[in-house]
Amino acid sequence: MTERENKELKQKQDEEILQEISGEEEVEYGLTNDYMFRSVFQTSEEALRGLLSALLYIPEEEILSCEICNPIILGDAIDDKTCILDIRVLLNGNKQINLEMQMGSVENWTDRSVFYLCKMFTDMKKGLDYTQAKPSIHVGIMMKSPIPEDAAFYNEYVLKNRRTSYEFTGKIALHVLDLSCLEQVPEEERQSALYYWACVFKAKTWKEVLAMAEQSESIKKAVVTLRELSEDEKIRQQCEARERYQMDWQSSMRTSREKGRAEGRAEGLAEGIASGELKKAQEVASALAEKGMPVEEIAKIVRMEEKVVQKWLLL
């Protein structure tokens, strides 16, 4: 079978998979599940190329290679607490991209993302000099706005001079695709590949997913891959484990915050009582001093050290 025949056969098989999907069926584990996100884009290079093209505004034909530098064995059990499911890609052999699907809390995300970006940028082989550091971009795909005061559908942060806006270096950047802002995208900007990908990420039903599959071959490939992996029991188990871990973690954080607030209220009450008792002792000491009672006796009555009482009386 020639390469062309093989390609045509694969396209036919993909079309059959899409036709078998019931549009009204809900997507149980979509691409906002970080394990499914990792699984789909590690499995399909075509889908990965399409996503990178949309995120970086690079025509797909200019993406000559996109090597995943941190592949995992899909379906194998992972350590929920320590496994990082970000996809680190070497693009065209000379640019590093870190793709993160953030399905949970955005607390401390700005500091954490900068840390990951700097760590990736400084990951150099021994013997290389600074000029050979590869341009690095960290892309966060977020369910919530990590910076509410600067929320937008797609933000790109770089190192610039505040006064002149001159770009200090083009070698590091941090991009944020904020899915919570999807509905705010103006109509004139809804015909973009990035908008289509965001719709796939947020889709709740296969009908919504299939509508986006018509927009590009790379999205269609992502949808086919998503469907195939959704029927893989090992993949499903890991997706479920990730969602369960996120729920447990969020519940634990909420409990910790509530406990902290309760302890804070208790401490505040205790401090208030102590402050009131201290004020009362000062008033008693002042009244006794006016009656001519010695400081030594006053100190015994209010149960304070003599030097403290002396200080009170001098105020």
What percentage of the residues does DSSP assign to strands (E)?
5-15%
Uncertain segments:
none
Shape: elongated
In DSSP terms, counting alpha (H) and pi (I) runs of 4 or more, how many helices?
Answer: 10
First-last Cα distance: 100 Å
Pairing-aware structural class of the strands and helices? Answer: alpha/beta
What's the pLDDT, averaged over the residues?
87
As a percent range, the share of helical residues equals: 40-55%
Count of beta strands: 6
Largest sheet: 6 strands, mixed
Order of strands, widest sheet: 1-2-3-4-6-5
What is the string of helix and strand elements? HHHEEEHEEEHHHHHH
Give me the Rg, rounded. Answer: 30 Å
Structure, explained:
The structure is a single chain. The protein has helices spanning 3-19, 34-43, 45-56, 109-121, 193-202, 206-213, 217-230, 233-290, 295-302, 306-314; strands at residues 66-68, 87-91, 95-102, 136-142, 154-160, 167-178. It has 315 residues and is α/β, with parallel strands linked by helices. It has a six-stranded mixed β-sheet, with helices on both faces. The longest helix is centred in the last third of the chain and has 58 residues, at 233-290. The protein is elongated. The model has no long low-confidence stretch (mean pLDDT 87).
Annotation keywords:
10 helices; 6-stranded mixed sheet; alpha/beta; elongated; 315 residues
Secondary-structure map with pairings?
Layout: H1 3-19, H2 34-43, H3 45-56, E1 66-68, E2 87-91, E3 95-102, H4 109-121, E4 136-142, E5 154-160, E6 167-178, H5 193-202, H6 206-213, H7 217-230, H8 233-290, H9 295-302, H10 306-314
Parallel strand pairs: 3-4, 4-6
Antiparallel strand pairs: 1-2, 2-3, 5-6
Helix pairs in contact: 1-7, 2-3, 2-7, 2-8, 3-7, 5-6, 6-7, 8-9, 9-10
